[in-house]
Design a protein that fits this description.
Largest sheet: 10 strands, parallel
Protein name: SHC SH2 domain-binding protein 1
Number of strands: 34
InterPro entries: Beta_helix, PbH1, Pectin_lyas_fold, Pectin_lyase_fold/virulence, SHCBP-like_N, SHCBP1-like
Helix content: 25-40%
Structural class: alpha/beta
Pfam family, one: Beta_helix
Strand order of the largest sheet: 10-9-11-14-17-20-23-26-29-32
Keywords: Acetylation, Cytoplasm, Cytoskeleton, Phosphoprotein, Repeat
Function: May play a role in signaling pathways governing cellular proliferation, cell growth and differentiation. May be a component of a novel signaling pathway downstream of Shc. Acts as a positive regulator of FGF signaling in neural progenitor cells.
Number of helices: 18
Length: 677
Amino acid sequence: PAVCQEDAESDWSGDSWSDYGSRGKAGTALGRIVPDGNVLFPDIFHTDHLLFYERFRTYQDYILADCKASEVKQFIAEYLEKVLEPSGWQAIWRTGVFEVVVGVVDVDYSALKAVVQLGDPFLCESRDSSFTLECMQELLELKEYQILLQELWVVYDESGEFDQTALAVEHVRFFYRCLWRTWDEEEEDDFDYFVRCVEPRLRLHYDILEHRVPSGLVTDYQNLLAQCEELYEKFLHVRSSISASESDSEGENVSMVEGLKLYEKVEHLKQKLKLIENPLLRYVFGYQKYRSLQAKGMRAAGTKVIHVVYLTMKPSLLHLLTRDKLCPESCGEDVEIQFHNDPLTAVGACYEGDRVIICPGHYIVDGVFCLADSVELEGYGLPDDIVIEKEGKGDNFFDCTGANIRISSLKLVQHNAVEGILNVHYGKTTLENCVFQCETTGITVRMSAELLMKNSDLYGAKGAGVEIYPGSTCTLLHNGIHHCKEGILIKNFLDEHYDVPKITMVNNVIHNNEGYGVVLVRPMMPSEVKDASAQRTKDANVKTEGNEFQEFLMLWLFCMALVTFLLFPALGNSQPPQSGDETACVQGVRQEQPECVTDELELYERPDTSELTEGNYELANELGATFAEKTKMHKKRLSKLEITEADDDLMSQDVFVSVEGNQFKWNGKGSFGTFLF
């Protein structure tokens, strides 16, 4: 044991666990920061710039390891005992009100606090002049001279002696500010706390820093976190009041009911936070935007404007444009015409009923197209000749909230995106003869929105090509959706608050997607949970029996082959070649004749008509079954309220979904799949 302890201490005394270790090295490996404000304040170590893998490795390997939620403080204390200098270093004590230089004389590891005294000379900066030397002394006496380590910023030292101390304090501060939740201690202790909580929160933190999460989702997460913390504090207060009360009074019963309601709300918010923290589920379930686009409405004079966008205007182009789009017969006498060099500027100048005509060219924009009014964007030519490309990082490309928006004959190209290429939040949007080169997800149809997309091509989405939310209306006619993560993703609509989406898919070609052609996301029903468990047990038994039979069969075949080889060694050479397709094909391959190989490739590449169209029936049946389940749940809720519905065909399957004539080809996982959660 003594040898093992000595080896462990030698491991910790070295620098193998940290890229910034300084013990045994000359000079510091960390940078420095000059504090703002008081020029007399000393510099501090620059430790808040650590990379993801540096924090990840430290928390996983050296601080938390496989601890449970209730053991977090104990594991952190043990880590600090190994790396934190107990005294001899200075720090800046920072609160929201003041900053003061202190010297550390001791560390209470179990409480995660440092015993400090005011620095000499006394250096303090505050919002007002009330924090004098005497005032700070009184404050420290009240705190028994113990300050939380996370409130200390270690003063810079060139010797490198306090590098690990600065890093240790930074890890503790970051953990309690960004990763720890006040309710974590009450989580179940039968799981690895790091894997369950710390890792997803750490990844989300760096995803936000690196602009990989939409700003709307970040706002949602911060709001949910604040609400959850507030409700949890109220819950703790109610619970403590019940525990302190010994009487079985009516007031205590009321408090218990209130506590149960708060507990349910907290659990609901915690589940939402976990969905956002999970990198896979945060985009599957999406979020609701709170930012609404304000429509301008009609102009005061009631006039409408045609906005012409061009890069270079030649006489021939102007002549054709005037003949086809700008003549009085086609646009009217009272229409005004304005010219722009930038499509984003033209859309920003639109009012209700305006029209934007974009001439051929490659337009590069850095911004978001916010379409809040009923306007029309039309390319004058083929889509490949009118390209609008987005540069720079940003959340959105096209946001549509107008009552009736129409976009046609354009090619939209997206790079370095966080959200999809086009979002339909409200109203109806029609897309015709367009090409969409996506980056993240493709087109999203939000709740209560309507999309009509026809004769268009969409590809390149790292998520779903088209996302359909509950309560929306989506009509897809004669489109190509290909080379995406998933072709079409239909969000869960089994929740009682959601309406069934109305989906029409006719003559679309959905091909070469990495996953499924169409995916339905819905919760797993209790009956399905039981069936899945029973099926797994059955499959395990069948697999065991099958393996035993297979082993016996292989052994028998080996023995028969061995006997045949010993008794008839020349049998294989004396057999004449057999006629037949299979033998001829084998001989052709041996003689390297290309005809047989060519036929084989043709058979492989020839599409099976039944396979191309079977996805239509599978999709319609699954959506119909899911709708039937929702109807059943709806009737069950009504029966509990003693309400009966006479019309069982309130919404028939034909009204709910129309799927026909679509082709599903070469999708990685098949035509249709269901994501159960």
